[in-house]
Specification:
TIM Barrel; binds 2-phosphoglycolic acid; alpha/beta; 15% strand
């Protein structure tokens, strides 16, 4: 049985104070959950989020990581900094990074290696564009994104790896993949993981669904056995709404 993971991706929202205010409202609402929960604030709000969560079992993640140990990379954040700031998780290859910041499959692979090496739990996002979805080539896109992401990573190193299927046409659009579409994409991702990392790693690997997850549709998605959790953008900004998603499955 894979432990469910509910991750909040706050994107470029919430100052340190707003992040702390969220945590204070959110913690009492999720005190009975057995699910793994992680909040991913903007980098400058990580410290305030970590501080506000002290004593709870809720984790903090970064939204990005650089693919080198350190160096002259203005504006970037290293694995070592992420760990030192109290984060345990990191989102890699989000479609907004791919679309607006030139993140390629090859970079995702390099970043993933650094994250795993640093002991972080990476949440690697894959997913097809609307045109690709309509052209019926979503599976090919997922296979390419996964096979390059997993390149020269050993099964032994990949134990913590989490994947997120985020069809780009469903992100922030209000359109959600049906549980059936999500399940079929997750099977493709799991098969790629089995080929590259071994069946055992693939069977244990959590695959989250992301794209317009809301309290109203979360239960039907999370009821699907292939869906091991959710990566939530818009609906994670409000403590009541994200708590409702966390609490919709035991
Ligand atoms: P959304 O974003 O829930 O607002 O669609 C999901 C994501 O981008 O991770």
């Amino acid at each position: 049985m894979r432990k469910r993971l509910l991750a909040a991706n706050w994107k470029m929202h919430k100052t340190p104070q707003q992040a702390a205010d969220f945590v204070h409202a959110f913690l009492p609402l999720v005190k009975n959950t057995d699910n793994e929960v992680v909040l991913c604030p903007a980098a400058l709000s990580v410290a305030a989020t970590v501080e506000a969560l002290k004593g709870s079992n809720i984790a903090v993640g970064c939204q990005n990581i650089h693919w080198e140990k350190d160096g002259a990379y203005t504006g970037e954040i290293s694995a070592e900094m992420i760990v030192a700031s109290g984060c345990t998780h990191v989102i890699i290859g989000h479609s907004e990074r791919r679309q607006y910041f030139g993140e390629t499959d090859e970079r995702v692979n390099k970043k993933l290696k650094f994250a795993l090496e640093a002991g972080l739990t990476p949440i690697v996002c894959v997913g097809e564009l609307l045109e690709e979805h309509e052209a019926g080539i979503a599976d090919d896109v997922l296979r390419r994104q996964c096979s390059i992401a997993f390149r020269s990573i050993s099964g032994a190193k990949a134990a913590k790896l989490v994947m997120a299927y985020e069809p780009v046409w469903a992100i922030g659009t209000g359109k959600t993949a049906t549980p059936h579409i999500a399940a079929s994409a997750h099977e493709t991702i799991r098969q790629e993981a089995a080929d590259a990392l071994g069946r055992d790693v693939a069977d244990k690997m959590r695959i989250l669904y992301g794209g317009s997850v809301k309290p109203e549709n979360a239960a039907s998605l999370l009821d699907e056995p292939e869906v091991d959790g959710a990566l939530v953008g818009g609906a994670s900004l409000d403590p009541q709404s994200f708590a409702a998603i966390v609490n919709c499955v035991k």
